[in-house]
Amino acid sequence: GPAPSPSPAMAPAQALAPPAAPALLALLQAACSPGLARGLGPWQQGLQATHYWDCNGQGCDATVLKPFDQHRFVAAPQYAPTNPEDFGGALYGEKLWLTGAASDALASQLGRDQGCCGSDRHSGGCGRCLLVRNPTADHPDWTAVVMKKSRCPPESKGCESPKVHLDIAAPGYDNVSVSTANICGESGYKTYINADESGVCAGTHGGCQCSSMPNNTDATKVLYNGCVLFGTWGWKAGDPLMEWQPVDCPPKFVERISAAFTSSGVEPVSRRSRWPWIAAGVALVLLALAACIVNRILDSRRERKEAERKQKKKQQNKEKERLRGRNFGGQVAARDTSSGESSSS
User: Model confidence over 197-223: pLDDT tens digits?
Assistant: First the structure.
């Protein structure tokens, strides 16, 4: 898509810039914008976005579950909106990590399955990410990284070819009245919330508090927090047109999502990002290394003092030997003198 035109504040500065200034401007832009510093491209227009949470398994996970069991094919709570700051921080300055279902036209622009997070036999793009922003939201400057975890097939409304469409997974925001795939709360499925709870905010936008959602287990806390975070973004409608561009998925995001669903199904939420433990391990290693260095310094000092003590003792012994030799020589000389005197007499 076309690059956005410069803002009124920036256009004059660039127009008046002398020929030698482009490099300086580039440095200033890179320093002030993490996204530009990472080489982001121009924003593309016209991405139609919607939201859902029907508790159903995500298409990319269908090939992961072995053997396939319909009752274990459910959405992992970890797919709910997540604050990057809880898992090591944002890569592009983004405020949310999201998952969602992509139309075939969108998936074709994301590339092949990434290999970390399932596969899609129909359109690819599983585990690939895009950066999005909603110009009409309460926070139009917020960006979100969205990973494809499912397919929005051409027979679904809004995903017909060649439409570029993204359906974002957001607990509490499923339009239950028209949803044809909602299994939340159905017998035999561990979905953590029921159908009513999956759509508590579907009819509202911009600050739904998600108060009707449960918040008493690790899994429901993740779903509840995801609902609140998504609501804080402040969509003004359920189908905004977004700006977007493909990006590499943040490694910590990939780590979280790839660990959420395995061949046996949904993994416990307690399996959070390992970065705090890794950081703690690194800290312990550094402390141990510091202790080794301190001990080595102390050992070196002890060795030096011991060497100095031995050298001093050696010098003292030499001095004693020298003195002893002098005394012995004096005694011999005295005896020789005494013997000479005796002989002459």
Answer: 999 998 887 678 899 999 999 999 999
Domain count, the chain: 1
Strands 44-52 and 165-169: parallel
Q: How far apart are CA 119 and CA 28, in angstroms?
A: 40
Residues 6+ apart with CB under 8 A from 144: 81, 94, 95, 96, 97, 98, 131, 132, 133, 233
Domain range enclosing 186:
36-277
Say if residue 252 is exposed, middle or buried (CB neighbours under 10 Å; 0-12, 13-18, 19+).
buried
Q: Give me the pLDDT at residue 42, please.
A: 94
> Is 321 part of any domain?
no
pTM across the whole model: 0.69
Residue 301 half-sphere exposure, CB side, CA atoms within 13 Å?
5
Residue type (1 letter), 70: Q
Q: For the domain that residue 102 is a member of, what is the CATH number?
A: 2.40.40.10
pLDDT in tens, 14-35: 333 344 444 443 343 344 444 4
Query: What is the bridge-based pairing of β-strands 241-247 and 129-133?
Result: antiparallel
Structural domain contains residue 215: yes
Q: Is residue 302 part of a domain?
A: no
In a domain, residue 310? The reply is no
- Would you call 129 helix, strand, or coil by DSSP? strand
